[in-house]
Amino acid sequence: MDKTKEQLYNRIKRSCGKAIGDFNLIDEGDRVAVAVSGGKDSWTLLKILDDLRKRAPVRFELVAVNFDPGFPGYRTDLIEGYLKHHHFSYRMEKTASNKVIEEKRRPGSSYCAFCARLRRGFLYSVAQQLACNKVALGHHLDDFIETLLLNQFYAGKLAAMSPKMLADNGMQTVIRPLVYVEEALIREYSGLSDFPIISCACPMAGDQEERQQRQRMKRLIHDLSGEIPQIRNSLLSAMGNVHHRHLPGS
């Protein structure tokens, strides 16, 4: 590992380890399903968790889980080849999400949001089959704060993501160990790694209003970070420092 890559890796690993400790994300005997989409975030998460697993004072297991949404061009072969080559335990799941979305999505509703709900449902079901009590997702610091701003600007509510929460099915616990890691670090580290980066091959990618809104939030944070370097960490801290008495309706 070259020096730059090693430095990036160590920064991400330290932040991930801190999140695991701060939020008690992984316990002795946990079996963790890691959602691997083929993107930079999920590959980085899997790599970091696998390294932490080998050195952690508690014993836990990992199983990489991938879902083929059924979109033409989605290269599951590259994902499986990498997992097999690096000796990960894994499960490849073929779905017909593309057909379900076309048949069941209500007119005018978000294509991406509907697809995300399907993926979560498949993930929880497979995690149950694999006897996994935890599900790890690759959401990073920027995802948290962009979601916070999107909900305030477009939905009129104070809500973001949680580093640790009970899954919708009430069976698994969802964890997000990259909560302290900026997307830029993941992008740079991933670019120096041998990950087979795969797009979702969704025909709607880039055309959704929700994607355009998120890109607007990215630009806003980027512009403000020039004046307020600590803005990401400040917004993350604000999520856990809510003064209810000073809010309407409290």
Give a verbal description of the structure.
The chain has a single domain (3-246), classed as Rossmann fold (3-Layer(aba) Sandwich). 50% of the residues lie in helices and 11% in strands. It has nine helices and six strands. The chain has helices at residues 3-23, 40-55, 76-85, 97-104, 111-129, 141-155, 183-191, 209-225, 231-239; strands at residues 31-35, 61-68, 90-94, 134-136, 164-166, 173-175. It has a six-stranded mixed beta sheet, with helices on both faces. Helix 1 (3-23) crosses helix 7 and helix 6 packs across helix 8 (209-225). The protein is globular. The termini are far apart. The mean pLDDT is 90.
List the helices and strands and how they pair.
Elements: H1 3-23, E1 31-35, H2 40-55, E2 61-68, H3 76-85, E3 90-94, H4 97-104, H5 111-129, E4 134-136, H6 141-155, E5 164-166, E6 173-175, H7 183-191, H8 209-225, H9 231-239
Parallel strand pairs: 1-2, 1-4, 2-3, 4-6
Antiparallel strand pairs: 5-6
Helix pairs in contact: 1-7, 2-7, 6-8, 6-9
